[in-house]
Design a protein that fits this description.
The chain is α/β, with parallel strands linked by helices. It contains seven helices and 14 strands.
Length: 273
């Protein structure tokens, strides 16, 4: 659940956003996938995501981002925003789906939405609640002071970039959520589970486009955790999936299970420790 995004690139735009990357990764892992989102009338989402079931509410415009990567990390600018989502946008039977991921990109999912789901495995991507947009459309990190968007979550996903200078929030999340996964781009990830932090390195990769790597990590983690109930296995699988995903632009390199497992077999040293 979250906005699909038009990521603006020199040649035009390509589809992005947590909902997009998560849906494609889950579908390529063999799952039946539904996406709750909003887009403008000019975006043909059924054609862009042909293997995904859509609960898509029309909006005057689609959420659109400009992303720039440099030595200081990613700089983002919002140049369009679709309308907010609500519980009424979610088909009733989807609220108990075996796996659910709330993936707001810029505050469009209500903070209390996690309490609506009865899914056995609920993931929340913190990113969209930890962003504010200034008058020029520039995205900046913020501390969250509203209702607990992570209430009822089984796993919370966040990146070092999302947290920014507000690292004191992490302690609150680890008190309230059983598993917290914090990704750090090329530095790999840290995972909090059963009262302690453990780390996993990033799998070697030829980076082409890092956009969406954290979303792929989150999705692969949830799918593997659902299958194995093993945090270490889920972390390793997710790290390998993220490494595959950055080796082409957009969704092109998001991998199947076979490809991810081949990446894992090629480097047995990357483990959660």
């Amino acid at each position: 659940m979250g906005h699909v995004v038009r990521d603006m690139v020199p040649e035009g735009w390509r589809l992005g956003g947590t909902a997009t990357f998560a849906a494609v990764q889950a579908e390529r892992l063999g799952l039946s996938v539904g996406v709750v989102t909003r887009v403008g009338v000019g975006l043909d989402l059924p054609a862009a995501l042909p293997n995904v079931t859509l609960a898509c509410t029309p909006s005057e415009e689609s959420t659109s981002f400009q992303n720039a990567y440099g030595k200081g990390g990613r700089q983002q600018r919002v140049i369009g925003r679709a309308g907010p989502l609500s519980a009424a946008d979610v088909p009733g039977e989807w609220l108990s789906a075996p796996i659910a991921l709330l993936g707001a990109v810029c505050g469009e999912v209500p903070a209390g939405m996690s309490g609506e789901f009865t899914s056995p495995l609920l993931g929340v991507s913190a990113q969209g609640w930890l962003r504010r947009v200034d008058e020029g459309g520039r995205v900046q990190s913020q501390a969250w002071e509203g209702e607990s968007f992570w209430r009822g979550a089984d796993v919370l996903f966040v990146s070092d970039e999302d947290v920014g200078p507000n690292s004191d929030q992490v302690d609150r999340w680890t008190r309230d959520v059983p598993i917290v996964a914090m990704t750090g781009n090329r530095r790999g990830a840290r995972v909090y589970d059963e009262g302690r932090w453990r780390s996993i390195a990033a799998f070697p990769a030829e980076e082409v486009d890092p956009t969406g790597a954290g979303d792929v990590f989150a999705t692969a983690f949830l799918v593997e955790l659902h299958m194995t109930n093993d945090v270490a296995k889920a972390s390793r699988f997710a790290s390998a999936a993220a490494a595959c995903a950055i080796e082409a632009t957009g969704i092109d390199a998001i991998a199947t299970r076979t490809v991810i497992e081949e990446r894992m077999d090629a480097d047995a040293s990357v483990v959660l420790q």
